[in-house]
């Protein structure tokens, strides 16, 4: 299904042929794409298999691990509570999680001889939403603080017996990577935000997100694990072979999605289908409303999708694993935001907001062109046992090129 709404059908066909080659040569098992404009579907396409070894093709109801694309959903849930007056963006996190009252910041030294200094200002809710808190992640492997996270048991998972509340307390006892508000760093900020959502709402994170985002939007298949009724629709997970770059099945990691998670991760714990996530992006494009259901006020969404950083990510990022281009891109409340498309080397519009997941999924919303794009696949970018930046195959950059090249009116 393609064409119309300002798109050239032949150019959309060219887009599909380009990504079909990723399946034909074995770099991906399969993929799925949806483009909407002005609230209507402009293009739907798919290629390959949700389970290559079983010969099961990608289907409309395929469940994908969206990993960090959970973050925008959780951020929207948090901001529904902001609209109810549950918190102010400048409130210190320690108001609700007391262990954050006396956080310290890494200054110098090795893992065995760390020197820290007091935080100049408290970690605030705004810092969590913008990833400027100083929290990091063990799997990044770019700093002494990352190593301290791993030593505490936080790498690509959590120690046995961890709860969302105990995770927050553990992270608060570890040093921050930088002074709050002075840099941008990918990490556990949204997981701590998820705990705050529980406290503010008086519900578990899954119940709060269901009540505030997924159920109102009709996202019935955006869930935390594939239960028995959904298991046969779950896409297999693949990783790139370190030598050939071809997709190799990774059931040891992929099968975790078949069981309820020990800790609900607002930073990366959800599964979704393409139709479900398209509904989420259409709500964003619709100023917080979809099909007569309002999730957020338009002004709230404009606040979330504005750049809150003093400079772009090139100047402020601590590096490591990220789903964002650095040049010309800032960050809002849960979304990367394009500030200068020329610096970002993209044909998108200023104000476009986006994010992606570790297994190659990505979405963006272009408010100028009234455009949404959602791409699903399952290639987790691992080097050895740790995550690496997900542009090992330049799926996202190519996707933007080809989508905007097909938009002719």
UniProtKB/TrEMBL annotation:
The lineage of its organism: Bacteria, Bacillati, Actinomycetota, Actinomycetes, Pseudonocardiales. Keywords: Hydrolase. InterPro entries: Beta-lactam-related (IPR001466), Beta-lactam/transpept-like (IPR012338), Diverse_Enzym_Activities (IPR050789). Gene3D superfamilies: DD-peptidase/beta-lactamase superfamily (3.40.710.10). The keyword Hydrolase applies. It holds the Pfam family Beta-lactamase. This is Serine hydrolase. GO terms for molecular function: hydrolase activity. It comes from Saccharothrix coeruleofusca. Residues 15-384 form the Beta-lactamase-related domain.
């Amino acid at each position: 299904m393609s064409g119309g709404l300002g798109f050239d059908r032949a150019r959309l066909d060219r887009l599909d042929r380009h990504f079909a080659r990723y399946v034909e040569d074995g770099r991906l098992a399969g993929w799925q794409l949806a483009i909407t404009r002005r609230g209507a579907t402009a293009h739907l396409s798919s290629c390959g298999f949700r389970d290559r070894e079983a010969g099961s093709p990608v289907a409309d109801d395929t469940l994908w691990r969206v990993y960090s694309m959970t973050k925008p959903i959780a951020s929207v849930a948090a901001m529904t509570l902001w609209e109810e007056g549950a918190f102010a963006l400048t409130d210190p996190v320690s108001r609700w999680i007391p262990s954050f009252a006396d956080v310290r910041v890494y200054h110098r030294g090795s893992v065995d001889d760390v020197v820290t200094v007091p935080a100049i200002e408290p970690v605030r809710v705004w810092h969590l939403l913008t990833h400027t808190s100083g929290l990091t992640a063990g799997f990044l492997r770019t700093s002494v603080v990352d190593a301290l996270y791993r030593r505490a048991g936080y790498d690509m998972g959590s120690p046995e017996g961890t709860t969302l509340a105990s995770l927050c307390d553990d992270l608060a006892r570890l040093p921050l990577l930088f002074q709050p508000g002075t840099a941008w760093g990918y990490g556990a900020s949204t997981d701590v935000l998820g705990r705050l959502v529980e406290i503010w709402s008086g519900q578990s994170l899954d119940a709060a997100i269901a009540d505030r985002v997924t159920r109102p939007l009709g996202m019935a298949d955006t869930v935390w694990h594939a239960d028995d009724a959904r298991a046969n629709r779950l896409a297999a997970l693949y990783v790139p072979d370190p030598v050939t770059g071809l997709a190799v099945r990774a059931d040891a990691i992929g099968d975790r999605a078949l069981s309820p998670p020990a800790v609900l991760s607002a930073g990366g714990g959800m599964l979704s289908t393409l139709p479900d996530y398209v509904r989420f992006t259409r709500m964003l494009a619709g100023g917080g409303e979809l099909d007569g259901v309002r999730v957020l006020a338009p002004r709230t969404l404009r606040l979330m999708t504005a750049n809150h950083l003093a400079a772009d990510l090139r100047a402020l990022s601590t590096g490591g694993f990220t789903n964002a281009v650095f040049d010309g891109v800032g960050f809002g409340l849960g979304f990367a935001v394009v500030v200068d498309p020329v610096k970002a080397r993209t044909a998108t519009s200023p104000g476009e907001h986006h994010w992606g997941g570790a297994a190659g999924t990505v979405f963006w919303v272009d408010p100028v062109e009234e455009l949404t794009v959602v791409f699903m696949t399952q290639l987790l970018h691992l080097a050895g046992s740790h995550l690496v930046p997900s542009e090992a195959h330049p799926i996202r950059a190519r996707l933007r090129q080809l989508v905007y090249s097909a938009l002719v009116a």
